Amino acid sequence: MASCDDSEMHSSLPFDEWKELQINATAEKVRKAKEAQSVDIGLRLYGLSYRLTLELAKDAAHLNRQYRYSLGEQIRMSSFHLSLDVDVAGLSGDKLAPVGRAIEGVRELQLCMRMLVDLNALPQKRCVYYLEMMTGAI
Q: For the whole prediction, is pTM greater than 0.90?
């Protein structure tokens, strides 16, 4: 019987090694796919936040003089910092702090947008467009 057990053990050993190699190879493929997906999402978010920054800067430059240097400047700076935080979140291992700052930046931008709409300095359709972009960025 001992010889039978030994032969079973030797015949199952290569299969176990093969199985472990297959599992490791699959795990490596999954890890690489997740990394590629993470990079793709990060680039998409960065592109969206950068486009938002450019469009907000253009619109802020066309505001009435009384709002251009107060709320307009606040909007330009907040959107710039939002893009910066999204970029930092994509590059760093610790994503919690930059994402938290990005969410605060979105809230600040939303408040500025609402104020400009209430002051009739920005069309409501344009504000809705920006708010949709912001929710897509975060």
A: no
